[in-house]
Amino acid sequence: MVNSSLAYEILLYINSFYFGLFATCELGTLILKSVLIIEKYDVEKDPTKLGRDYGVLIGLFIIEAARLILGRKGSLSEKDIPVLFSVLLTVPSIMGVLYLLIFQVVVLRIEYIWCTLMLCIQTLEFVFASMFIVSLCRGPSYD
C-alpha cells in the first residue's frame, strides 16, 4: 500500500516551491499583458476584463497559500481537520487555475504549460489528501 502521508507531504513541498514560481510568472505576464494589449483588445471600452483577471489572480494567491499552509500543518501533525479544509479549498483553487487557463482576456502558450502543471499537482494532491484523510479515519493497524 502507498504511504499517502508521505506522498501528500512531498506533493505539498513541491507545490510550495512551484506556487511561488507560478504566482510570480502569472503576475508578471498579467502586468505585461495589461500594458501591451490595451489597444489590441479594446480593454479601454470594457476595463472590467482586466480587473476580473487581477481579482481572480489575487484570490487564487490567497486561497492557494491558505490551502498549502493548512495542508502542511495537518500533514505534519497528522490531524484530519486541517487536511480536510485543504481539500475543500482545492476546489476553488482549481476553478481559479481553470479561469486563468481558459477565460482570461489573452492566454499565452507558456500559461497553458504553467496552468496545466499546476492542475496536475493540485489533482495529485487532492487524491493523496483524500487517501490520507481516509487512512486517518481508520483505526491504527498493529501488523
TrEMBL record:
Coiled coil: none annotated. Keywords: Membrane, Transmembrane, Transmembrane helix. It is a multi-pass membrane protein. GO terms for biological process: non-motile cilium assembly. Its main location: membrane. Pfam families: Transmemb_17 (PF09799). The keyword Transmembrane helix applies. GO terms for cellular component: ciliary transition zone; membrane. The chain crosses the membrane at residues 12-32, 52-70, 82-106, 112-137. It is found in: Membrane. InterPro entries: Uncharacterised_TM-17. This is Transmembrane protein 216. It comes from Chrysodeixis includens.
